[in-house]
Design brief:
binds zinc ion, 3 domains
Length: 176
């Protein structure tokens, strides 16, 4: 920031009057010379998707994104839900700890309509001696530390994380 020059609007550096200039100027006032394509893009607010829908150019086509999401969901193999694992609703982008809770707000939704994906517990990240980098001399190993880290990682396998993420399978209540 210190090196950045401060220019007020009344400074002669802020803008210059040009004569005999021809070329594309976008709606925002930017001069693009011969590049009419970029000038038009710069001045546009919306763009048209291949599907025909018009959306803000700094965004994306939500209809196509939704379609891709559904295709991805349908491509997942099916597994009968065990009634215990957390569920992720792909249609609501929401996690559910239990199926019973889904229908409690005066809603009548079917299991299928929720597009449930069976969740898997996240895995622990193993500890490595990199974590203690600042406390160790370079190129000198510490065997006691290595042993401790090994024991720690072994013990870590004995406990489960309490966090879930969408897994590989879409859930069904019974065999389809
Ligand atoms: Zn589209």
């Amino acid at each position: 920031m210190d090196n950045e020059k401060i220019i007020l609007s009344n400074s002669p550096d802020a803008a210059t009057y040009k004569e005999n200039l021809s070329g594309w100027v976008s709606r925002t006032g930017r001069f693009w010379g011969k590049d009419g394509h970029m000038a038009k893009w710069d001045g546009a607010t919306h763009t048209k998707c291949r599907c025909g829908i018009i959306f803000p150019k700094n965004s994306y086509c939500k209809t196509c994104a939704e379609k891709r999401r559904l295709e991805k969901f349908k491509a997942k193999p099916v597994m009968v839900w065990n009634g215990k694992d957390a569920l992720y609703s792909d249609s609501e982008d929401r996690y559910y700890g239990e199926w019973e809770g889904v229908n409690n707000e005066d809603r009548k939704v079917s299991f299928e309509s929720m597009n449930f994906i069976i969740c898997e517990r996240t895995e622990w990240r193993e500890l490595s001696d990199d974590f203690f980098e600042d406390s160790l001399c370079e190129d000198v190993g510490n065997d006691e530390l290595i042993d401790l880290i090994h024991d720690f990682n072994e013990n870590l396998k004995e406990i489960q994380t309490n966090c879930w993420e969408p897994g590989l399978y879409r859930a069904v209540l019974e065999e389809e």
